[in-house]
Amino acid sequence: MLLVKRLSRLLVALLVVLPVVAVLPSPAAAAGRKRIVVVLREQRVYAYEGNAVVFTTRANVRGAKRGNFRIQNKVPMAKSSVLGWKLPYWMGIYYVGRIQNGFHGYSIQSNGRLAANSLGCIVMPTSEAAWLYRWASVGTPVTIR
């Protein structure tokens, strides 16, 4: 009996002295992470939560730069510094000199017509750009391959 009491005291002492161990996120929490993948040869955008595709759309990605980026800023209606066109649901991801490229819906020309042209941006139908804009946040990882 005395031995059991001493062992239990020793066990309590060890528990008090042991350092606190950091708790890692569960696999389920880690699987909820958001990311965007743009596949140039497919001309498609994929949005992932963990390993699950939650959204995909076609896009004009002509001239987009390959690499790993993050969404740097979001503007509901940006304006192109090159052409002066309106760019709905803008999400900037990288710079080429002083000009930023990013995701946006069809450009709205000064005459009101829509254009799907890309000068390095990822241009998608405006309704799809709206969905991605609401889903993603500044800092969301973006891979263009």
Topology:
Elements: H1 2-17, H2 27-31, E1 34-39, E2 44-49, E3 52-58, E4 67-70, E5 73-79, E6 86-96, E7 99-105, E8 107-108, E9 114-115, E10 122-124, H3 126-135, E11 141-144
Parallel strand pairs: 1-11, 7-10
Antiparallel strand pairs: 1-2, 2-3, 4-11, 5-6, 6-7, 8-9
Give an overview in words.
The chain has 145 residues and is of the alpha+beta class. The chain has one domain (33-144): Beta Barrel (L,D-transpeptidase catalytic domain-like). The chain is built from three helices and eleven strands, in the order ααββββββββββαβ. The protein has helices at 2-17, 27-31, 126-135, and strands spanning 34-39, 44-49, 52-58, 67-70, 73-79, 86-96, 99-105, 107-108, 114-115, 122-124, 141-144. The strands form three sheets. A five-stranded mixed beta sheet has the order 3-2-1-11-4, with no helix packed on it. It has a four-stranded mixed beta sheet with strand order 5-6-7-10. It is globular and about 40 Å long. The relative contact order is 0.21.
The low-confidence runs, each spanning 5 or more residues with pLDDT under 50, are: 10-31
| Range of strand content | 35-45%
Task: Spell out the helices and strands N to C.
Answer: HHEEEEEEEEEEHE
Please tally the helical runs, counting DSSP H or I stretches of 4 or more residues: 3
Q: Going across the major beta sheet, what is the strand order? A: 3-2-1-11-4
Main traits of this protein?
3 helices; L,D-transpeptidase catalytic domain-like; globular; four-stranded mixed sheet; 145 residues; alpha+beta
